[in-house]
Design a protein that fits this description.
Blueprint: H1 7-12, H2 16-23, H3 26-29, E1 43-48, H4 54-66, E2 79-84, H5 87-95, H6 101-104, E3 112-114, E4 119-121, E5 127-132, E6 146-150, H7 158-168, E7 176-181, H8 187-194, E8 198-203, H9 214-224, H10 228-233, H11 249-254, E9 256-257, E10 265-271, E11 282-290, E12 301-306, E13 309-310, H12 314-327, E14 332-336, H13 342-351, E15 357-362, H14 366-378, E16 382-385, H15 393-401, E17 402-403, E18 406-407, H16 415-429, E19 437-439
Parallel strand pairs: 1-7, 1-8, 2-5, 2-6, 6-7, 9-16, 10-14, 12-16, 14-15
Antiparallel strand pairs: 3-4, 4-5, 10-11, 11-12, 11-13, 15-19, 17-18
Helix pairs in contact: 12-13, 14-16, 15-16
Length: about 450
Amino acid sequence: MRAGLDPSLIVRNLPHCRRHAAAWDWRIWARPQQLAPPGDWSTWLITGGRGSGKTRAGAEWVRAQVEGDVPDAPGPSRRIALIGETADQARDVMVLGESGLLAVTPPDRRPVFHVSRRHLLWPNGAEAHLFSASDPESLRGPQFDAAWCDELAKWRRAQEAWDMLQFGLRLGGLPRAVVTTTPRANPCLIALMQDPATVLTRMPTRDNAAHLAPSFLKQVTARYAGLDIGRQELEGELLEETPGAFWSRALISGVRIDSAPPLSRVIVAVDPPVTARKGSDACGIVVAGVTGTPEDSGSFAVVLADWSVQGVPPQAWAARAVAAYRFHKADRLVAEVNQGGDMVEAVIRQIDPDIPFRAVRATRGKAVRAEPVAALYEQNRIKHLASVARPLARLEDQMCAFAPGIFRGDTKSPDRVDALVWAITDLMLTHRPDPRMRIL
């Protein structure tokens, strides 16, 4: 529903003769994100979590395309393509589902569904045909002025089906498509998100809380918030990986633990930025600890928290690093000094003159320094604490975006990963001399 408005109150205050029509008026009941955006877009892409209301938004958009002012009046579109992952899912979700076309359409405008023909026919003559994305060739030949594609990220032959649809969207003055999907790292979906003709709307599950069982939202949030599956299935985020990355999401998912074991040492590692301007690199601040000693083959490190901060002056990131040191009762603060030299230690000691401090200087590139740390992950000697209070999501995103010679993250530099590498190096690798880095 729209912010600041109570649809039920609006309907109650309408004359009796208009109340029935208002119950079917989507403009009253929809949240702003569920209404079609303005402009001459070609594709409206709705990515959302489970139960976020994206299917309802797709069905209501189709209604708006086919319906006129009265049941027999024509709407903007006459020929619609309804495409699901399979023909059964197109039928069961897009047509017969609780938020499907038959359920959201008032009786006097409701189309007749010819199941065997996979065909919908409205009273005004508009029609829709159901298609399976698993059979892209079925889209060769028919032509449309609008289309609704559901769960495109799950389509096994997504690019083929999408390409065939584009050749068929050739009727009317402005043929358009709406895509409703929970995002996955599907190349077709990624290309669609990057297309300038696409308008993107995101719908997290929590936005539709008024229409979900409270126990459901509470339970799934408690269990999955901050995890990759929660970010994808609840927040509607697209989680990508760079080909050849040092770390994969599958690997990271396998090293998460719910609670930290007793730790013999805890380190706060800092990767200071060159500048504090808006849009500059973040100051990477990562906290990690180790069980036992590095020489003990059974010991392992635990990444406890990511305190990184962006766009703040040195005094601010230094204060945050010291706060992380105190909060986690750390044993030492480690900071890279390639960029700031003695200034790095000086600004930290302005906050806490007595803090145990170690300066480190890199003599080789970031990727080379990351290799031995990545090897420890593969040996299952590093864990990630799955904390809802201070999740590691952005650090893990950078890890999966970082490959030799390539970084495809949402920042210019893998600053959080750099801090992680320094922390793990200090905890697990400093007992073995490494020519690629020098400890001052």
